[in-house]
Amino acid sequence: MQIVTAVRWGALLVLGAALIGGCKKETPPKAEAPQVSPVTAPATAEMAKTGEALFKQHCAACHPDGGNIIKPDFTLQAKSMAAHKINTPGDIVKIMRNPASGMTKFDEATIPEKDATEIAQYIQNTFK
Fold first, then answer.
1. What CATH code is carried by the domain that includes residue 72?
2. Of 125, 126, 124, 122, whose CA–CA distance to 54 is shortest?
3. CA–CA separation, 97 vs 15, rounded Å?
4. Scanning 39, 42, 46, 57, which has the fewest C-beta atoms within 10 Å of its C-beta?
């Protein structure tokens, strides 16, 4: 009887060990993320934006198609801009930085100088 009990206990121990430790599921190795070359991808999304994209992001809501929803007489059309002595991209950037009432002020923290110049050039090249 003692032998039968010992055999049963032994069988239970072997079965338990197989269930606990012997049936490990192997996990497949994780795929590595693809490497992006810094030469082909811009460091940030902002760096990749054009004057048009920046205009759409910051200006188009109030200046759709070069208009002006706040002051309809102050459009971005060349004729209107010239009438208000706004003749260069620098003039446009000055207004972005220190606008008249009704327009949002865009400081350099909001729109960096390079981006502001891109927007100004886009305005001059688009709304003739």
1. 1.10.760.10
2. 122
3. 78
4. 39
